[in-house]
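Figure-free illustration: sequence to structure, shown twice.
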Amino acid sequence: MFTGLIEDVGKVVKLIKTGSAARLDVATGFPLEEIKPGDSIAVNGVCLTVVEKGSAQLSFDISPETIDCTTFNRTRPGQPVNLERALRLGDRMGGHIVSGHVDCVATIVERREVSSNHVFSFRLPGRFTRYVIEKGSITIEGISLTVNSVSDDVFSVNIIPHTIEHTTLQYKKPGDEVNIETDIIGKYIERLMSGQKDGLDNGVTMELLAKSGFL
């Protein structure tokens, strides 16, 4: 589990494909004495498991499913990547609940500067638009952000100077692709609401949501 607050911008050392899977090596400024094989690290928003560590880099195995559903199939050596270590019990929850399970890849359709801030617009696959709401949370390349506006399959976010300077968004331009994780709460509610349709005995109803304080 993560919060979407980027701790370090690392750099891809190499990505070696082995069939439909891959091994990824990333150089990082993390204190590696605090990291061990088996730990979870979000790399551009994708939860990966450390399988090996060197003097200044970490290695991860990437499954075929992850290759297919993320931008890793276009990753190149030297590319900067956003890094976040897993949330520890008792840490402040500064962003929002991020699972590190990417839903889809979106494309940047516009980037413009407004009063030293940067407004990005993204187009994402239509079936995921129902999870994106104005003023709701979304994860882009592992970064916890607030949705400014939504129109059909395009949504926009406002990026403050600090976030631009400390993440890979500073390098992004129209046409680039990014990893997207929509808000997990909306997906859980949708699944629970469909309980009766799927043959489950106790689907969540609007009445139950109201009684539980969600409405």
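We now fold a second protein in the same way, so the two outputs can be compared directly.
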Amino acid sequence: MQLEPAVRRIVTIANRLDRPGATIPWSRRRAVSAATSRRFRGLVMPAGPDMASETDLMVPVDGGRILVRVYRPRAGRLPVHVFLHGGGWCNGGLDERDPRCRTIASGADCVVVSVDYRLAPENTFPTAPEDCYRTLQWITDEAETLGVDATRLSVSGESAGANLAAVLCLMTRDRGGPAIAYQWLDVPATDLTMEQPSVRSTPSGHLLDYATMIEFRDAYLRSEDDWTTPYASPLHAADLSGLPPAWILTCGADPLRDDGTAYARRLREAGVTVVEERLAGHVHPSFAFTRIATAADYERRAVAALREHLH
């Protein structure tokens, strides 16, 4: 698959980095992944604008508490956007996407709440979506204290985080709120049967491989019975009507590109307004490669669309 030259250079560098193997304990793998991400981040994305405040808070969830980071670009009662990091439901955290949350908060003129949901395999499905749903409830309950307008609420995520964002929209519809006004899904995983054609047809070496996807899926879900559960695989929901307008990114050399396209098609068929963007010469994590002009331009358009819906 043809990649943009700048994307190809990043992919070449990334493929040379050491990655912990499947036999290494998850705690160690996460530490190595986080350290690699810190070294790599400056190469692919700017630091992001300064915030008026950036605060870490604890949210009570079933069985414990989780950390959220609240980004405020300025004073005033602002709309609120919930951001969900990627990492295959098994990796990732707040620090890795700190620059992007700053960019979203500043560009969309909103408070961003980044959620450190609990990770698999220690916390299998449905822990992650339930943590995220509880965070939405907490935002609504604490709106006055947080200084946000919870009637203007949106959600976004990347990869596994986009899966959780899509699932949240289903959960809030099914449970009667909190109401979500807009969903932004970057390279979402929507079908955890892994049966979309691009999952197998995309060659390895593009920073997301079939074997890794299967490993993450099997660490996250309890059994094959969960593969088609709508709150794990939103594409398998019988009814997608009544969901908020959606912005969906797919990338040309991403095994998940058909997941995003199929979900966009199902949403349209259900009467949901959808904007689907395709970065043809890009790979799965290209949403983060904002030192590349085409990725930066994509992010500007996505943030502008979010601002328009929230304001």
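Summary for the second example: The mean pLDDT is 95.
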